[in-house]
Amino acid sequence: MKHRFLRDSAKFLAGLVLGDFLTLWWLAAQGIWPVHFFGIIWSSQIVLPGLLFDAALFLMLVHYGWHVGKIPMFRERTYLVIAGAIFMVVAVVHLIRLFTGDINLNILGWVVPLWISWIGVIVAGYLSYLSFSLAAKLE
Questions:
Q1: Is 90 in a helix, a strand, or coil?
Q2: Do both 80 and 38 map to the same domain?
Q3: Segment (H or E) for 111
Q4: For residue range 10-26, what is the model confidence (pLDDT) as tens digits?
Q5: How many whole angstroms from its chain centre is CA 51?
Q6: Which of 37, 51, 55, 121 is the most exposed place for a label (fewest CB within 10 A)?
Q7: 137 alpha carbon, distance to own chain's centre
Q8: What is this structure's pTM?
Q9: In total, how many domains does the chain have?
Q10: pLDDT of residue 1
Q11: 82 and 131 in a common domain
């Protein structure tokens, strides 16, 4: 019963994500930028990341919703390596922001100070190190 509800929910959410994808694509084709929605200004810079995110989420939901057999589980080591790689990318992006100073981060009108990237480098770097060291111990 539980798995059937989750699969049906994944099918429904896949339809919503597909609708979001098509709407974003249509807005990009019409050139209606910037769009003000719920007090947030959406510019043309979010089109490509938004389309990629929607496509990846749609594929995952379709796979779970219509997959006939069981979905294979990640091994713990694989999960740790993937998490370590993601944390490493986040740390590198923070380092790039620190050294170039060109990337201005703006969250709902608040300009994020540059010194917060030092915390991001330390935390993301440490989590990356932990993930890779735990994955190495599992071999």
A1: helix
A2: no
A3: strand 110-111
A4: 888 888 889 988 888 88
A5: 12
A6: 37
A7: 28
A8: 0.50
A9: 2
A10: 46
A11: yes
